[in-house]
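Hello again, I could really use a second opinion on something today. Take your time with it, there's no hurry, and the full record follows here:

___
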Amino acid sequence: MSDSMRQFGLDVRITRDPMGFGYGDEVIGPVPEIRTLDQIRPSLRDPGCSGPEQVYAIAMDVAKQQHLAELKKRMLLFGIVTYAKGQLGSEPIRSQGHIHRVSQHSGWSPPELYEIWQGKAIIYMQERVERDPGRCFAVHAGPGEKVLVPPGWAHATISADPDQPLTFAAWCDREYGFEYAAVRAYKGLAWYPLLQGNNIIWQQNPHYQSGRLHAIGPRHYHEFGLNNQSLYAQFEADPARFQFIAKPGSVAEKWARFEP
């Protein structure tokens, strides 16, 4: 069984058994990497919880073949991820909280621009991983909606509906890297998402000082020149549009006053 994501600009199929992706004739992409429950236990509220053995599949550098040279030149990479349905003990299916490693070519911890393809998502983000995590946001988004995580912020992607899989894509820096150590040292991010029935509630992580979580919806990021087309279609129309992902320093003034 597979689900076609062609409406998002790429001939990609999401498969469930086995978990992963299939690519159309003009699309190239890697064999997906599977993240198992045992691999992500250190970042969970209850590391001994039960849940699906295969939690999510990730494929970095998916593209139409004719665009690969352009993407390499621009230091851009398009990734896709699909989650299992279900839950991790009392928590929803989610990624490990992380910060993006500083990119050598830009000198910045890169931003990331998400697009939800299937299911319901919450993109959780906080300014830093310190006793005081700064501003904390939970951005709720559905199919076709986009969420931008600014440079240097710690974040995680959460499935907001345990009854259906979540699939999303993202523009990333080609030199992407994930740093987990700081988040693990604090036993996770500043807020734990918990399932209460089919609803998400939030519990503060006691390893951080108390603060406030802002639950919001997505916006359009007009200041970055984005529109309502799919992320990949916007790249096809204007390959320079997403240069701010690989070169965030070129729009430093926008990050200084950024609001998710």
User: Anything to note?
Assistant: Residues 231-237 form the longest helix (7 residues). The CA atoms of residues 122 and 176 lie 21 Å apart. DSSP finds six helices and 21 strands in the chain. The domain at 2-256 is CATH 2.60.120.10 (Jelly Rolls).
